[in-house]
Design a protein that fits this description.
The chain is of the alpha+beta class and 626 residues long. The protein folds into five domains: 34 residues; 155 residues, Sandwich (Immunoglobulin-like); 157 residues, no CATH class; 119 residues, Neutral Protease, domain 2; 86 residues, Immunoglobulin-like. The protein has 14 helices and 30 strands.
């Protein structure tokens, strides 16, 4: 009894020390907690706020002319406690200007003269516009009158720019097919952490936007079809009756509907034959809008139930060149993704009315839109589409600052990609994909940039360090905590975090503290090692000894990451057993642990195997029992 009490007392002391760990917080994050905009239980603080806008945008495009002309009226609501005098306007398309700060080389066909502001006013008062200089993708403006807390201001902006001939995320897909993203001037995010978002877009890190309401009018010549974020408001005004009926039918069926075939498009019978058709779209409480236009892309559509309780359906559409063989299956891939992701992981019903997968060059996500390459291998095409659609929940539902904390969206999309891949491909193939695309480059590269803490702000990184932090390393961290908590508790925590923060701007500490709070367990020991340390995965067997119940295996954590592991035992009689260990084995000591193997057989050898949690040095993962 005394021995058991002593062991229990030692465990409690160790556990208390572990639980006493705190997470590093930058000074601006600490200030937000002190101001009460964030809370230590992971909830939005009692003083939490965020701003909001209503955008009414009209653009005109007439391929093969590369000129895009736009005008917009913005109603911007100041929910902050501060008076706004000098808001920041983001001009993402300026990344194409010569001399813009970017991390990749720019060829001539990438470059343009950027966005040109033709007029800017507020309440009929002109505002002086100055071209951005060293900060090329944003500019500060001066309001005629200060914008007081809980008041609003109206801005009117006219602008134009030329579509890039060869880009990735947006631009010309072919001479009469454009994918337009980040095409309009927008008010930057003002938040409770950093104030105005003045981060430069470099074409590497991604985006940070407020939740806004949008009305979008796209003026294009007859015979051009428009696909966009949002819901089409005037179907019968832009489509001939046959094609309007097909689109309407697709909204309520599981059947694949060829809304417009290659022959239909070539025959120029799809759209109304006005010289200019004005396609009108609307979307509410969403972080961005994007669109595609073409006079020859094929148009497929169907729908799928995304909420079993209400039987709500979401439309799934695809727009592509008829020669892209994999895209003929794309609506089916999209239907499967929306259904599975809604019902399983993350297990939150798809929050939007539709998604459209457009054949392009980017492998890039937008609210209700995907811009994906075409591949000969349809398995890989589905793999890419599922990843991009998974982004719906992170960052578009959750309002992540991708520029600073990209691991909060890419990491989750990679996690869902792995989970759905196990269903689609089987564990063996999915594991091979995950190792190949998400883990190999990181774990087999000993360079210093690979060991930067995941929490490192993404705007301070580039290349392998940024890519592996945001994708593979973060995803493994999420999967490790899933293994640690078990599916039921993990689901409770994930759904609780999403319930608290969807439509808002969560930061990593909101996630960590929500999981601590909702699980009833202080997981700071885990968060510290996985997200805040210069660690990696490298476990080694130190010793294997006989015990009263079988054997004990002592494992040293050389790399520091508190990963799960399988202990594979080969017995003297030739049989094998696998003993899975969750990250809980590291709860009281993150550097070394002893695991009991209950067996009445004689063990011949012991091997560690992490599966997708690949070990940096496997030479010390085997132990021959003497």
């Amino acid at each position: 009894m005394f021995k058991q009490l002593l062991i229990g007392a030692c465990f409690c002391i160790s556990f208390s020390i572990v639980q006493a760990q705190e997470l590093y917080q930058p000074r601006d994050v600490t200030a937000a907690f002190k101001k009460g905009t964030r809370s230590a239980d992971g909830m939005p603080g009692k003083n939490y706020w965020q701003n909001y806008g209503r955008y009414d945008i009209t653009i005109t495009a007439a391929p093969p002319s590369r000129a895009i002309k736009g005008s917009e009226k913005i109603t911007y609501i100041n929910n902050s406690p501060d008076t706004i005098r000098n808001p920041i306007v983001k001009l993402i398309v300026n990344i194409h200007k010569p001399g813009a700060m970017r991390y990749n080389d720019a060829q001539d066909d990438y470059l343009t003269s950027g966005t040109h502001i033709d007029a800017l006013s507020s309440a009929d008062k002109n505002i002086e516009w100055q071209e951005p200089d060293y900060h090329g993708t944003w500019q500060q403006i001066r309001l005629p009158n200060p914008l007081l807390p809980h008041d609003s201001v109206q801005l009117s902006i006219d602008w134009h720019y030329d579509v890039s001939l060869k880009s990735g995320r947006e631009g010309m897909l072919d001479s009469t097919t454009y994918f337009l993203a980040y095409f309009y001037p927008r008010i930057a995010v003002l938040d409770d952490i950093s104030g105005w978002d003045r981060m430069e877009f470099t074409d590497a890190q991604e985006f940070y936007n407020d939740f806004n309401d949008y009305k979008l009018t796209v003026n294009v010549p007859k015979n051009y079809v428009v696909w966009s974020t949002g819901t089409l408001q005037n179907t019968s005004e832009v489509l001939q009756a046959t094609f309007a009926d097909r689109l309407t039918k697709s909204m309520t069926t599981d059947e694949l509907i060829n809304v417009a075939t290659a022959k239909d498009m070539a025959s120029k019978i799809v759209t109304k034959q006005n010289n200019i058709n004005s396609w009108k779209w609307a979307a509410t409480n969403i972080t961005d809008v994007a669109l595609a236009i073409s006079d020859h892309y094929v148009w497929d559509a169907s729908s799928v139930i995304v909420d079993e309780k209400t039987k709500r359906r979401a439309s799934v559409q695809a727009a592509y060149n008829d020669t892209a063989k994999d895209f003929h299956f794309m609506v089916g891939f999209g239907r499967h993704a929306l259904s599975w992701l809604s019902s399983n992981w993350p297990g939150v019903a798809y929050p939007f009315p539709k998604t459209t997968i457009v054949q392009g060059f980017a492998g890039m996500e937008y609210p209700m839109m995907v811009n994906d390459e075409t591949y000969d291998d349809t398995t890989f095409s589905r793999f890419v589409a599922e990843h991009e659609i998974a982004h719906t929940w992170f960052p578009f539902y959750m309002g992540i600052n991708e520029h600073r904390y990209g691991f909060m969206d890419e990491g989750w999309a990679t996690t869902f990609e792995w989970l759905i891949g196990n269903v689609d491909l089987g564990n063996e193939t999915a594991t091979g994909f995950f190792k190949q695309f998400r883990v190999n480059q990181w774990i087999n590269d000993p360079a210093a940039e690979e060991d930067l803490p995941i929490i490192t702000p993404g705007n301070m990184m580039n290349g392998a360090g940024m890519g592996n932090n945001e994708y593979g390393k973060a995803s493994l961290g999420y999967l490790a905590v899933k293994d640690l908590l078990g599916d039921d508790v993990f689901r409770k925590c994930l759904h609780g975090f999403m319930d608290r923060w969807h439509g808002k701007h969560p930061i990593p500490w909101d996630f960590f503290y929500s999981f601590n709070n909702l699980s009833g367990t202080n997981l700071n020991w885990f968060w510290n090692r996985w997200f805040f340390s210069h660690g990696y995965i490298d476990l080694a067997i130190q010793d294997v000894k006989k015990s009263t119940v079988g054997y004990t295996v002592t494992i040293k954590n050389i790399g520091g990451f508190t990963a799960p592991v399988n202990i594979i035992v080969t017995n003297a009689d030739g049989t094998k057993s696998i003993f899975h260990q969750t990250p809980n084995i590291w709860a009281s000591n993150q550097d070394v642990t002893t695991v009991s193997i209950a067996t009445n057989k004689t063990i011949k050898s012991v091997t560690l195997d992490g599966g997708i949690f690949m070990d940096a040095d496997t030479s010390n993962n085997n132990f021959i029992v003497q």
